[in-house]
Amino acid sequence: PGTYRPYELGQEMGVWVNNSDGVTPAVGKAWPPGDSVFPDYTNPRTVEWWTQMCLELKDVLDYDGIWIDMNEPSNFLRGQYPGCSANDINNPPYIPSVSDRSLSEKTLCPDSKTYLGEHYNTHSLFGWSQTAPTFNAVQQATGKRAFVLSRSTFVGSGKHGAHWLGDNFSQWKDLRYSITGVLEFNLFGIPYV
To answer: Where is the Glycoside hydrolase family 31 TIM barrel domain positioned along the sequence (predicted)?
Structure first.
């Protein structure tokens, strides 16, 4: 009692995005509200872990596809515990006009470590690197062509998954904006939006 298999196995396999020390798992907050760690899908061990978790889920809950959400990675904090260090990676000289003028707003600190390097350089690949392993795991679990729907995508993600445009309101202006989004993602090689 009190254990959570995906976390325990992930911890054992060392699959998390780490703090800037490269060892301590980055801990933030996400759904359900509470402490969360973030799988590093650029790590081959994480692909093994994720595949195993998807196969075990199929034994508990019959599914035909998986919707991967909050995979930007999304975090309800600015960075993770204990906060982002004051350095040029977390606070570069130029910051685009993003929410709250912080690269770590609602995500991880840019100096967090992934298998491929700093999160600063791999942030946009987080959802992309989760989509292909999810497609392959669902296909393995179901024996059919997989259906994967992802909120975070990158150029070429359309080979393994569909993209959803995120939360919106049911108003005409939102429908109008969605048409632009659908057409733009088709330019990025994601035909199913």
So the answer is: 3-193
3-state SS, residue 34: strand
**Nearest CA-CA partner of 109 in 16, 13, 27, 11:** 27
- Catalytic residue status for 8: no
pTM for the whole structure: 0.91
Q: Work out the mean pLDDT of the chain and round it to a whole number.
A: 93
Single-letter code of the amino acid located at 81: Y
Tokens 């998954």 belong to residue: 161
The single residue of 8, 56, 59, 69 carrying the catalytic annotation is 69
**For this structure, is 72 an active site residue?**
yes
| One-letter amino acid for residue 7 of the chain | Y
What class is the 5-160 domain?
alpha beta
Question: pLDDT digit string (tens) for 109-147?
Answer: 999 999 999 999 999 999 999 999 999 999 999 999 999
d(CA 157, CA 162): 8
Domain coordinates in residue numbering, the chain: 5-160
